[in-house]
Amino acid sequence: MSRRPPLTPEQKRERDRQCLQRRRRAAGAIPLELWRANSLRAIKPWLKLGLSERQWYARGQPMRDVLAPNTPRRGERLRPRADQSGEQS
């Protein structure tokens, strides 16, 4: 039986990073790029109402469900849209 050579610190770091990423995906986490693309900051629904971002938040995010329907409220989990999940229909 031959033993594998010991991992360098960089190899161990990469292996651990990938393991953690797989574990987070299995728990329901979505990729950062998808999360950012669906964030309110990216969608900017306040511009559609002619408000500044600060005014929009101060007014309690008016018409949020109409202007940004795919963004979760605080404490809700973001669900990827079917066209962004990477699955073929």
Please give the structural blueprint.
Blueprint: H1 9-26, H2 32-37, H3 40-43, H4 45-48, H5 53-58, H6 64-67
Q: Which term fits the overall shape?
A: rod-shaped
Give the low-pLDDT segments. none
Order of helices and strands: HHHHHH
Multimeric state: single chain
Structural class: mainly alpha
Q: How many angstroms separate the termini?
A: 47 Å
Q: Tell how many strands the DSSP assignment holds.
A: 0
Proportion of helical residues: 40-55%
How many individual helices? 6
* Integer-rounded radius of gyration: 20 Å
Mean pLDDT: 80
The major pleated sheet works out as: none
Strand composition percent: under 5%
Please explain how this structure is put together:
- This protein has 89 residues and is an all-alpha fold.
- It has a domain at 11-69.
- Helices cover 47% and strands 0% of the residues.
- It has 6 helices and no strands.
- It has helices at 9-26, 32-37, 40-43, 45-48, 53-58, 64-67.
- The longest helix is centred in the N-terminal third of the chain and has 18 residues, at 9-26.
- The radius of gyration is 20 Å and the shape is rod-shaped.
- The mean pLDDT is 80.
Task: Fill in the keyword field for this structure.
89 residues; mainly alpha; 47% helix
Brief digest:
With 89 residues, the protein is mainly α. The chain has 6 helices and no strands.
